[in-house]
Amino acid sequence: MLLAINLFLLLTGYLILKTVREALILSEGSAEVKSYAAAGQALLLFLIVPVYGSLAGKVNRIQLINSVTLFFISNLIAFYLLAQVAVPLGVVFFLWVGIFNLFIIAQFWSFANDIYTEEAGKRLFAIVAFGGSLGAILGPKIASALFEPLGPYLLMLVTAGILGLCLIMPNLINQMNWVRGQIVNKANDATQPLAKGGAFKLVLGKRYLLLIAFLMVVLNLVNTTGEFILGKVVSQEAQRVVNMPSPGFAEFTVPPLTDEQKKKKARDFIARFYGDYFFTVNLIGALAQLFLVSRIIKHSGVPVSLFFLPLIALAGYTLIAFIPSLTFIRWAKTLENSTDYSLQNTVRQALFLPTTREEKYKAKAAIDTFFVRIGDVLSAALVFLSVQFSLTVQAMSVVNVALVGIWLLLVAGIGRNYRTMAAEQNQAAS
Questions:
Q1: 3-state SS of the chain: helix, strand, coil percent to 5?
Q2: What is the CATH number of the domain that holds 336?
Q3: Is 182 inside any structural domain?
Q4: Which of 107, 142, 169, 177 could disulfide-link to 2, CB 3.0 to 4.6 Å?
Q5: Residue 355 lies inside a defined structural domain of this protein
Q6: Which of the four pLDDT bands, split at 50, 70 and 90, describes residue 193?
């Protein structure tokens, strides 16, 4: 329950920031700028991941969690202060959110993997993840309701307060010494720092981890390209709404909007769209998490459950290639993302249950941050090519269909390795 509450708060805060991020980046730039900015996150993570690994080798797990969370809280306060002196933050904040959400969520699931055995994790992760699903529903509604009265920068302070509450749960869990031994993984000494060794070395040195890393590259490449498709069409619709003639009356003429008014109108339209979109995605994801995920994993197993999302993505992008309207793209992405946030996310976290403690924290952090953002780099390259060659939404969808084929091959390989590792771990335990 404490883990579920923790993830609820984390996802509430993240979805508030995600809505703010979309409004800032799309109103100050464009869908293309958004895609190119995402590529910069990979370069930053290439520098940050080794620093995180070095910190993990010097402090114990609760000190690591506290330090990283307090660092992100201080960043949000700094963003608010910079905004007060009119520093443009669209691209910078976009880069930061992309690093924040990956690190804070990866760290949470590393902690959950560390305290649960494999059997307990497969049984309980769906319940823990449901807490996150509820937070992901609440976050966009808070952002949508408060964006216009508070503005984007006060919402950053609201999220900083939420992150402060997130410090309570892991510290309580870490202090518990009465939890049942069959649930808690007591083989790990939580008071000791992790063993020395680089995160990238761990990933590159083990076939199973490398396959998961490649999976995250391809998965994020497909998803980010899909988000570009959606963002481009939303931006076009926002401009259409802004340029629509204002209703007038015969006795007077409505003055045209100023550039600043047009910018605000476009930003508010985008914020409302994404607030409603994120709410719908996460509502469907929460319902799937509550009623379907645990049953699918129980009856299909972890390896087979990995196939659901790529098959849904394959169907969605195939249909977008034929019907590229905003309404249809929105619902295709809604189904894809709701499955990603529910079933795929739960199964992906379970992939690390049969790994070592160093792999759970260091290798997982590298995979869930740097390798995810490598997918953004490749997506940015794809977006650049689409601009140079004037590729349509339909053409981008066809590219995603081809990428899903590679995704399916990776899932098959991961499933085989997972079965082998789980069998070896069960044999060693017996």
A1: 85, 0, 15
A2: 1.20.1250.20
A3: no
A4: 169
A5: yes
A6: low
